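Okay, any thoughts on this one?
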Amino acid sequence: MSNDQVIDLLKQAYNDEMETVMNYQALSIILDGIHAEEIKESLRQDVQEELGHAEQLGQRLKQLDSSPPGSEEFVAHQDTLQPPADTTDVASVIDGVLDAEEDAINTYRELVDAAEAANDPVSEDLAVTLLADEEAHRTEFRGFKKEYKGN
């Protein structure tokens, strides 16, 4: 694989992280109900972590003589992570988060492979680190899903 493919995946991951920040922020504000508090707090914490991921991806793009994409290049695709009409629908939010985390995990796995093939160990290392974070988020929300089914 080429350096161009690594850059394309870094940009895709950057956009995904920024979209996730936007959606997690909105969800952490609009959710209502007793069962929502733990989810809202987790989302608030994840906003900062996802923003940090975007920062790291942007810095890596700069190091590769590229740049993070601006808003004109942004295309939203997290359909299942949109704020629900029913602000107490915590289950749909959990499912949306799990979908977003799966997408991120898949992107970072692709980036690991592309960076390895392009002989870019720095991008590969970054992707592995961010992949671990996203897998931890997925595990946390899988736990929320199990717990929420009991309510």
Remarks:
- The mean pLDDT is 95.
- The CA atoms of residues 108 and 127 lie 5 Å apart.
- The helical segments are 3-30, 37-63, 90-117, 121-149.
- The first helix runs from residue 3 to 30.
